[in-house]
Amino acid sequence: QASVVESGGGLVEPGGSLTLSCVASGKTFGTYTMGWYRQAPGKERELVAHTESISPLTINDSVKGRFNISTDMAKKTLFLHMSSLKPEDSATYYCNYLTNWGTHILPWGPGTQVTVSS
Length: 118
Description:
The chain has strands spanning 3-7, 10-12, 18-25, 34-39, 46-50, 67-72, 77-82, 91-97, 112-116. By secondary structure, it is an all-beta fold.
């Protein structure tokens, strides 16, 4: 079965930037929609960025313009570039393959934790 492994989380100051990585295997990277999700304690897991899809998927207004995705085709790696970080961005971040209707395909892994604090 396909798998993904997230890394790159850590502590960052408010207003700072951080890039997360997701190494994928088991599928033809670049032919499937992929996305980054996050979940903070007491909150629902939410989609924060995704690669191209058949139709646009809903992204929370709080991260639009600050979170962007890029890919490295040779290394089968998905990146999440985060900027102008705020304390409310603190969460565990996960990557996954997406269906055409925006739901995850693989079981959730451990993710990588991001903490935005002074």
